[in-house]
Amino acid sequence: MNHPILDQIQQLRAELAPGDTAPALVTALADGSAPLAALAELAAQQYRIITSDRRSLLLLATRCADRPAGAWFATLADGESAALRTLPALAAACGLDPNSLDPNNSAPTNSAPNNSAPDGRNPTSTAPRSPAARPPLPGCQAYPAYLAWLTLNARPASAAVALVANFAAWGKCTGFHLGPGQRKRERLASYALVA
């Protein structure tokens, strides 16, 4: 069935399709060789990403609450909420205090993993490094910033098309690659990464 919107989504998916080579971090996560500090940084950055995306999706849902797209955006926001609930287990498995994930949390934490940080900061430091002490990484925050922009400036239908087109690329790049290698890691054995 030819439909202009479906054709546009297929075209966008083709343009966004990842290449044959996965990013280095995705490869390291897949084979279980990613340093624990990289996983800790991922957990800290994911907290910021997920909370931003959730707010954006809820705002999109309210912008079209009386249309079917409103329920769709609200369902996506529920998915972000579910992802947010899994982060404390990942943080704990990486040596972070799960209560420290919220950068606005001012409670003292013991959140430094025992190996070096991916940005080269002093690996021998025993000072706690809560996510609040980890600056947002631009490469990690680009997508939530774009989604926030779409939320405020695009029509909800255009935002929906952008999201649908991106889902396939994101899932292909990360979703099915991450689970098996990380389940091999002893410290993450109790944390079920969902693919």
Summarize the structure.
By secondary structure, this protein is mainly alpha-helical. The protein has helices at 4-16, 24-31, 36-63, 68-93, 138-153, 156-184.
Radius of gyration: 18 Å
Beta-strand content bin: under 5%
H-E string: HHHHHH
Helix and strand content put the structural class at mainly alpha
**Through-space gap between termini:** 30 Å
Average pLDDT metric: 75
Q: What low-confidence regions span 5 or more consecutive residues with pLDDT below 50?
A: 108-128, 189-195
**Helical element count?**
6
Overall geometry comes to globular
Q: What helical percentage do the residues reach? A: 55-70%
Question: How would you characterize the largest beta sheet?
Answer: none
How many beta strands in the DSSP annotation? 0
What does this structure look like?
This protein has 195 residues and is mainly α. The protein has helices spanning 4-16, 24-31, 36-63, 68-93, 138-153, 156-184. α1 packs across α6, α2 (24-31) packs across α6 and α3 packs antiparallel against α4. The longest helix has 29 residues, at 156-184. The two termini are 30 Å apart.
Main attributes of the structure:
disordered C terminus; mainly alpha; single chain; 195 residues
Helix/strand layout:
Elements: H1 4-16, H2 24-31, H3 36-63, H4 68-93, H5 138-153, H6 156-184
